[in-house]
Each structure stands twice: as C-alpha cells, then as structure tokens.
Amino acid sequence: QVQLVESGGALVQAGGSLRLSCAASGIAFSISTVAWYRQAPGKQRSLVALITNYGSTTYADSVKGRFTISRDNAKNTVYLQMNSLKPEDTAVYYCKAPLNYGPVYWGQGTQVTVSS
C-alpha cells in the first residue's frame, strides 16, 4: 500500500520559516522523482518544487531563493524548507510521487497559513 504522509504545516507570521516533510512508503523511493504542490482557496493546484532521483531540483518562480527541496533516501522522506514566508504562500501543501514511472500518488496535504 502506497502512502505519502505530509507534516510540518502550521500558522506562522510573515517572514518566518517552516519545514515540511513528506514520508513515503510502498514506492521505490530512491528512484522516484518527488514533488511538492500547493493549492490556495479558489485556485488550482500548482507545482512548488520537485527533486529527481538524481537530486536535481526545479522551483516555481514564486518560491525561488526562498524554498529548498531536499531528500533523505535513508528515511524515504522529502523535505521542503520554506524561508521568508509571505501571506501568498498560504495554501494546503501536497506531496506527489513518483513522477517518473508507474501510477502517481498524492498525500493528504498539510495546511500552511502565513499571517501578515
């Protein structure tokens, strides 16, 4: 059974930081490309960042320089370090994997709220 479990969401003030985690099970994690998406109320779900199995990363323009995606294959976990948070970063953040083979799965999401 495949599970992607996000954690780390919280209420934080603008300018603050959070680290989200996505713990995966049931997939070949070390060869998987994993992505973070987010969805704000009334908006479509959009890509925030992704990391390939080789460690290459891609970021949405809106988060470049503020967010960092990383992975720990020994823990089957991908992280999203979010710094200099802005109110417009408020959204539910979802983990999606794998992007490079087989069926794709989503986590249940974790809420990030940034107050001004």
Please, could you describe this protein's structure?
The chain is mostly beta strands. The chain has no helices and eleven strands. The strands form two sheets. Strands 2, 4, 5, 6, 9, 10 and 11 form a seven-stranded mixed sheet that branches. It has a four-stranded antiparallel sheet with strand order 1-3-8-7, with no helix packed on it. It is globular. The mean pLDDT is 97.
**SS-based structural class?**
mainly beta
The Rg value, from CA coordinates, equals 13 Å
Could you state the order of secondary-structure elements as H and E?
Answer: EEEEEEEEEEE
Query: Which percent range describes the beta-strand content?
Result: over 45%
Kindly list the characteristics that best describe this protein.
11 strands; 0% helix; single chain; 116 residues; mainly beta; 7-stranded mixed β-sheet
Topology:
Layout: E1 3-7, E2 11-13, E3 18-25, E4 34-39, E5 46-51, E6 57-59, E7 67-72, E8 77-82, E9 91-97, E10 105-106, E11 110-115
Parallel strand pairs: 2-11
Antiparallel strand pairs: 1-3, 3-8, 4-5, 4-9, 5-6, 7-8, 9-10, 9-11
